[in-house]
Amino acid sequence: VCKLCGISRQSVYQREKRAAHRQVELIPIKQMVLELRRYMPRIGTRKLYSLLKPKLQEQGIKLGRDALFDYLRDERLLVQAKRSFTKTTNSRHWMKKHPNLLKDYKPRHPEDVLVSDITYVQSDEGVHYLSLVTDAFSRKIMGYELSNEMKATDVVKALDMAIRTRRYGCSCIHHSDRGLQYCSGVYQDRLKKGTIKPSMTDGYDCYQNALAERVNGILKQEFLLHECKDIVELKQLVKESINIYNNMRPHLSLGMRTPNEVHEKANC
């Protein structure tokens, strides 16, 4: 076969030896991956590579991003996408809807634009609702509230937390869908008290609030995977997950930095 292919037997043995040596060299990577996935079970490979790269260089392991994809595929460690949909927005109501202020506007610094949305999460008790307020520039989750209902008085608690955790005194826009919770008097009064301008999507186009939807998806698909017995246990999981998301998970859109890193180091 070697003669037919025009190669020497020695080169075949050398290739086998290199492959065996490479296999041994890559053994530590699996443990590194599993350690990171203790905190971020469904983190994608690009972000995983960004976190692993300093450790690989420290141990003298040469492995590129594409090679990491191949390694994870061989070890069956690639994550599979999950898709689900439950409607949490009721925009067919009589309350005032505000215009979309973000059509031709791009956030310039932290706390310039806050985006809000509601998603559902489950425990053994049933369905619960998670309200999130996220900084559009740094992607940091500024406020959150988990409740058994989608009442405006519950949703406004996430906004209250976001206002308390603000660090900068710049003007601010709050963007959301046209759900009745965001149009309610209690929510709008709180925005006015915090000197925050309201902005809402046009009609029923969910893509106009895509960032908030994206953050919902990240939490549900990468973090909130443990089956909790009740809302108390689920609240603890949400708290830990948001802390990891803000402080450990890198974002491609942030140059592989974490949301908190971008938020704290910005000049407003």
Automatic annotation (TrEMBL):
Pfam families: rve. Residues 106-267 form the Integrase catalytic domain. It comes from the Bacteria. GO terms for biological process: DNA integration. InterPro entries: Integrase_cat-core, RNaseH-like_sf, RNaseH_sf, Transpos_IS3, Transposase_IS3/IS150/IS904. GO terms for molecular function: nucleic acid binding. PANTHER family: INTEGRASE PROTEIN, TRANSPOSASE INSF FOR INSERTION SEQUENCE IS3B-RELATED. This is Transposase InsO family protein. It comes from Vibrio diazotrophicus.
